[in-house]
Structure formats: structure tokens, C-alpha cells
Amino acid sequence: MPAPFSAKKGLATRESLTPPHEEEEEPYSRSHVSQASVWKSVLAGFLAAFPTVLLLFLFKSFSMSKLFSAALAMLVMTRSTSSWRVDTHHHVLPPMYLEAMEANGGEPTGYPMPSWSLEQSLSSMNKVGTSISILSLSVPGVAIAGTGMEARTLARDVNDYFGNATTESNVSERLGFFGALPDWRDVNGTLAEIDYLYEAQQLAHGVSASTSYGGQLLSHDDFAPIWQRLNDYHALVFLHPTSLPGEPGSIAGALPDPIVDFPLATTRAAVDLVLSGRFGQVPDVDVILSHAGGTLPYIGTRVIGSLAIPEVRSKVQVDILQAAAGFKRFYHDLALSSTPAQLNGLLDFTEPDKILFGSDFPYAAQYAIDALVLQYEAFVRSSPRGYKLTNDVLRRNALRLLQKHQQGKKFEERTAFEVVNGLVS
Ligand SMILES: *[C@@H]1O[C@H](CO)[C@@H](O)[C@H](O)[C@H]1NC(C)=O
Ligand SMILES: *[C@@H]1O[C@H](CO)[C@@H](O)[C@H](O)[C@H]1NC(C)=O
Ligand SMILES: *[C@@H]1O[C@H](CO)[C@@H](O)[C@H](O)[C@H]1NC(C)=O
């Protein structure tokens, strides 16, 4: 990559707390607005006018993707040095995981398996302007290997792979990870792996967990010792959706589970944790919900309202105020979730300091990540509330959360210039 950062002057207003729409109104009258900034405004206006569906269609169908990639590259290049991204939703498929998938019947959600390598991750990160990614397995994760010794070994191998990649690779300073755990129904195996991550290895920034195991939501009594142990270590939990009960592909006889069921699974898990009182018992645990909280911002108020029904209230462990406070504790990533409906929903439901950037690489194809990042940028520049969600805000949220939960591996604030120099040296 060339070093284009001298072109970034003129973007100062974007980094300040000035609502960007004020800048939009008369972009040409500001003497300090660079050509790149004008271009960004034009592009943002164009993108804001496009619903996601058309955007994706354009990206995918008409060789437009090269043009848009160039546009995205320009956005990245002209971005202020302080606004590179931190991606907390970035998946890997290391060799031992692929072997376990192969040996156990393959990807069970009906979603096509992406190809992956560390080089592909880095290339995607450079493209969208990500300086740091926190690696994790997606679902089914280690549970693909069952609930016995084979799965325990797989979890350990994956965590050692993560440990190596984030300390020994030549890009280690840009990588962290959420440790893999066995299926929680193997309670002892899960406790042992948590101990390994926090006492022996001490590199992970948290653990990843599925929204349910064997159809059991996470407040289940069997899982209580796991929550207790996570609380003892003040762990960060990256909650990843998994399939709901029912036949895979039962929607329209074809739709992979992630499309509709995953946001619902996230919603069920979040509501279960809060209303069961389990979340209240683990005040030192932070939880990241994937994909803008699934449908939680959309129906959370309906859940809170249900506590006004005496028959419901008498059976759950929290009152209306406690439930509202519990929901506010969640962090949310923006993986594949940057439509105005999703971003406005989050801003209605939670505080901007709980929102993180996520890409869902490589399950999200690069063209989809490009489209959704550009759509997010368009919201930031065009919506009256966009200034609340600038990339600076998202990056600071992520760094603050990671620093709160760090062990032996620490992330510094780094400038884009240093990152790119690191890449080309
Ligand atoms: C991690 O690195 C160590 C030391 O280089 C090596 O022995 C081990 O096999 C590696 N583990 C994985 C899972 O890559
Ligand atoms: C889990 O470990 C405890 C104590 O370490 C032991 O008493 C118990 O039998 C184990 N449970 C299983 C299912 O292995
Ligand atoms: C890191 O090493 C790989 C080969 O293992 C190489 O292709 C890549 O260019 C290196 N990256 C940097 C930043 O040195």
C-alpha cells in the first residue's frame, strides 16, 4: 500500500463532535474541506439513497464491486489516523477445526463454508481499514466434536493456535482472540478450558459462547458454575448465535439458519439471561451480542412491557427497572447490521458507548462487508444522529472494553501510519 495519509487534512470536523450533517449542508463553502472530503460527501449521499438490497445487488451482480472497492479504499486512505477500526467479530477456520468439521458431518447450519487463511484476514482488514481484529470460531465451534474428550482436545488445540497467531505471527500486534470453549453441557471440560485460558495461557481477551447448547438457553441451572467461573475471572463473553430447534433449512425449505434464526437466537439468549436473573448474578462479566443485538432493540421494549403482566412478573427474577438496566449492559457489534433501521434501533435502545464494529469475515463475503461498511459510513455522514456512532466512537468503545478485559496481551492506540508502515516494512 502507498502512504496516502497526507491527503487526510480537511477531515478534522468529522473527527470532532460536530454533527456531520452540519458539514453536509454547505460542504463547498468550507475552505478546509479537501477534495477527498467532498467526494466522501457525494459518495455518502449516493449510498444513503440506496437500500441495502440494491447495494448488495450492485456489488454482487454488475462488476461494480471494483468501483466500490476503490471508493472504500479512498475512504480508508483519507480517514484520520485516529479512526481505524477494531473488529470484534472476525472468524477463523484453522486446520484442526476444518478437520473436526469434516470428521463430524460438515457445517450444520446450511450456510456455505467460506475459505479462510490468516493472509485473507489481513487482506480484508487492510481493505476496510481495520487495525485490530479479535479472532474467534463461529458456530458450531468446538461443539461440532460432541461433548467428550475429542471436543476438549479440539478446544485446547484451537486456543493454542490462537495463542500462536496472536503472539508469534508477523502480524501478531494486530490480532487478539476470544478463546474457544467446549459445548457447555460438558461442564467440567468447559471449566477446565476457562481455567487454562485465564491461568495458564493468559492471552485471550475473553471467550466465545453459543446462544444455546443442545437447545438449552444459557441461564440453565447446569450452566451456573460456568457463569460463576467467568465472573471470577471478570471475563468478556462474545455471544454468537446458533441454530434454533427445528430442522435446518426449514424456512422456505432452503434458507440457511443464520439468515433469520440467528438474530432470533441472539434475542432469546439475551432475554433469557436478563429475565432469569442470571445476568444480574454476574456483574463482572461483560457480554457482546452479535449483529446489533439480533432483534433485541426492536422487541426489547415489548419484553420489558410484559413484566407489567402479574402472571409474568411473578415468574421471572427481575422487575421492569432491573430488566431495563440488564438490557443496557449488553455490548452490540455491527456485523452485517448497518441499515438505518438497525443503527437507529440501537441508538433508541442503548447508549452509543455499547456499540462496536464487526465484520463477520469470512462468513460475510468481502463484497458484503464493503457494502455494509459504506452503508455505515453513509449513516454517520447523513443521519442527524450519525455523529454519535462515528468510527472514532466505535474504536474507542472497543479499545476500552478490550483493555478492561486484557491479560498478557495488550493493545495500544496505534496510528494508521504506523500500521501501514508495519505492513510495508
Ligand atoms: C504453537 O506453537 C508451538 C511452539 O512454536 C508449537 O509447538 C505448537 O505446535 C503450536 N500449536 C499450534 C496449535 O499451532
Ligand atoms: C466434574 O468434576 C467434579 C469434581 O472435579 C466431579 O466430582 C464430577 O464427577 C465431574 N463430573 C463429570 C460429569 O465428570
Ligand atoms: C508475514 O509473513 C508472510 C509469510 O508467512 C508473508 O507473506 C507476509 O508478507 C508477511 N507480512 C509482513 C507484514 O511482513
From TrEMBL:
Q: E.C. number, please?
A: 4.1.1.52
The secretion signal range is none
Against Pfam families, the record matches this protein to:
Amidohydro_2
- TM spans (from-to): 38-59
Query: Which GO biological process entries does UniProt record here?
Result: secondary metabolic process
* Annotated keywords: Decarboxylase, Lyase, Membrane, Metal-binding, Transmembrane, Transmembrane helix, Zinc
Main EC class the enzyme belongs to: lyase
Q: Which domain of life is it from?
A: Eukaryota
Q: Which GO terms describe its cellular component?
A: cytosol
Q: Its catalytic activity?
A: 6-methylsalicylate + H(+) = 3-methylphenol + CO2
**GO MF terms on file?**
6-methylsalicylate decarboxylase activity; hydrolase activity; metal ion binding
InterPro entries per the UniProt record, alphabetical: ACMSD (IPR032465), Amidohydro-rel (IPR006680), Metal_Hydrolase (IPR032466)
Where is each Amidohydrolase-related domain found?
86-402
Q: Where is this region: Disordered?
A: 1-30
Known PANTHER family for this protein? Answer: 2-AMINO-3-CARBOXYLMUCONATE-6-SEMIALDEHYDE DECARBOXYLASE, AMIDOHYDROLASE-RELATED DOMAIN-CONTAINING PROTEIN
Q: Which family does it belong to?
A: Belongs to the metallo-dependent hydrolases superfamily. ACMSD family.
Q: What is this protein called?
A: 6-methylsalicylate decarboxylase
Organism, by scientific name, is: Emericellopsis cladophorae
